[in-house]
Amino acid sequence: MASGSGDEEGNTEGVSWRLIGPASELSKKRCRLMYSSLGYDSDVCLFYVKGEFFAMDARCSHSGGPLCEGDIEEADGVLQVFCPWHDYDFDLRTGKSGTSLQQQVYEVKLEDGNVYVKHSSHLSLLPFPANQKS
Ligand code: FES
């Protein structure tokens, strides 16, 4: 079991590629929220725009607005998400904003029809049981 590339997934410490799911399914929605095993502040958005996936911290670096619910616009070939709370813009590819804020972005890769995101924690499309408030 430990043969070959042992750290593809399953490693909870350090940055590694996290399997998210099949691209055919994930591309059906413009944005999915991926829960982080580190908790709410570390959740990540997986955007699918113009045939490409982008991963970005889900909570706006301004005041924590839900970027998954933001509008996406293209200007001069640059795709941006606009935070629904105060309309700050963030470049989907770099995380840069016209406001000097910077949103953390993550590498995404497609392999054998599956989407992977490079992240320091486990990512899941469903909440982790430990994070659920009952
Ligand atoms: S919380 Fe996102 S712009 Fe203010």
UniProtKB/TrEMBL annotation:
Domain Rieske as annotated: residue spans: 17-117
Keywords: 2Fe-2S, Iron, Iron-sulfur, Metal-binding
Gene3D superfamilies given in the database record: Rieske [2Fe-2S] iron-sulphur domain
Record keyword Transmembrane helix present: no
InterPro entries noted in UniProt: Rieske_2Fe-2S (IPR017941), Rieske_2Fe-2S_sf (IPR036922), Sol_Rieske_ferrdox_dom (IPR054716)
GO MF terms, alphabetically ordered: 2 iron, 2 sulfur cluster binding; metal ion binding
Annotated protein name in UniProt: Rieske domain-containing protein
Annotated organism of origin: Lates calcarifer
Upper lineage: Eukaryota, Metazoa, Chordata, Craniata, Vertebrata
